[in-house]
Amino acid sequence: MLNNTPTLNHEEQQIAADRIHDLMAKGLSSGEAIMLVAHEIREADAKKRGVQEVVEIEDDEE
């Protein structure tokens, strides 16, 4: 794993891409959608490994 990013198989990659497209269709920017899905993937991986991961995401837009 590079940068704490889990390796995804082809099916998992397709699910992630579909989720990103769905979020973009709902109005999120591509960057926001990718960041959200990446966070969800890391969180699910951490739970699977039994590790609690704390991630702070700053929102610069106010």
UniProtKB/TrEMBL annotation:
UniProt xrefs under InterPro entries: UPF0181 (IPR005371)
Domain of life: Bacteria
Pfam families, per the entry: UPF0181
UniProt protein name: YoaH family protein
Taxonomic source organism: Photobacterium profundum 3TCK
